[in-house]
Amino acid sequence: MLQKVENYILKNNLLTAGAKVIVGTSGGADSVALLHILKQLGFQCIVAHCNFHLRNEESDRDELFVQELATKLDLEYHKIDFDTVENATTNKISIEMAARNLRYNWFEELRAELNAEAIAVAHHADDNVETLLMNLTRGTGLRGMTGIPVRNGLVIRPLLCCSRNEIINYLNIIDYNYVTDSTNSQNDYVRNRFRNEIIPIFESINPAFRQTISDTIARFEEIEQIYNEHIALEINNLCKFENKKTKIDTSILKTKKYAKTILYELLSPCDFHNDTISKVLRGIDNTPGAIFYSPTHQLLYDRNQLILAKRAKAKTETYTIYNSDIEIIEPVQLKITHRKFDGKINKSSLYATFDATKLKFPLILRRWQQADSFVPFGMKTHKKVSDFFIDTKINRFEKENIWLIVSGGEIAWIMGYRTDNRFSVDKSTSEIIEFQLIN
Length: 439
Known about the structure:
By secondary structure, this protein is an alpha+beta fold. The protein is built from 14 helices and 22 strands. The chain is 39% helix and 22% strand. The two termini are 53 Å apart. The relative contact order is 0.08.
């Protein structure tokens, strides 16, 4: 067992030799075995226990057991108490999800505080089988067929190579006790129903069902690698990545027999739902200018392309620029230079040069508003900003991400596009202020 787990750790590059690792320890058989194995393999184990206070006296029993286990193994011990029910109610999520979020957030805080290399949790091969079946029941793509990842960021799962029976046999051999969660025998949770009811039915048909599914997961993991490599090539052929935007060529996308799959791989990491992705694909030819939103991103139809980027912050948000500022980091990155005017002006759209005496500090950095107007450089009369956008053929998506510099209530610069003529340098200018927009 020790050799098997050590080989699995080496094969998947989970830990460096002797590394410090946070070990999530509930007191159940799986986590007790994980803790003992990692200690025997020479890793610096730190015991981390969460008391979710969901099982009354049983929760406190588990906490005491883990504390005594840490003492027995002479290991550093940390524990935390959570009001899991309150957290679930406040965030309008399930008890399971609340416990998961609380657990992993604390594990990461502890890992960072103690400078540990990783967080080890005790998922095993049987958990993987249950996860695959649950994913199939909900509906899944290829990724869901690979079960639980052996690594997710800094969270590692060294026991995925071991079955539950192997774990119990190991604990019997080393004569180690563990606690049993009484809710594991209850079928209130979906996972328990698979474990206690559904998988035994499959095993009555195929006694080696768990091993068969584990072997299938291994094959799907290899298939996924091939799939990901091909999808990456397709995305590279379809997309241009510039100015924090992804531009997707729809003329190429429409020629692909598996266009939805490619689009799904592009958009699902940006929180677009499968139904929305289907609507996007159906509307490519007949909904120009339409915008689709996810919680974090927006997607615009623009001629023969789709433009994907993060959603802009609220239009009401404003920032202040003071005369002493030489750089702005948020919400956009600006470099600000005060200097004598030598007759030279950078004409790039990423630069704006103003007569220093005409600007009234502090300046305001804000989004454009429907009633805004300005005097475009080279002109003498006002023009509505919305009309300027139409004339310049700025699409709806780009408009959402445009910022203005405002001086004394007047627009001095539509950033990246046009300055206001009233603030421009002239023959009498001796001092200038130059803004550079960093993309």
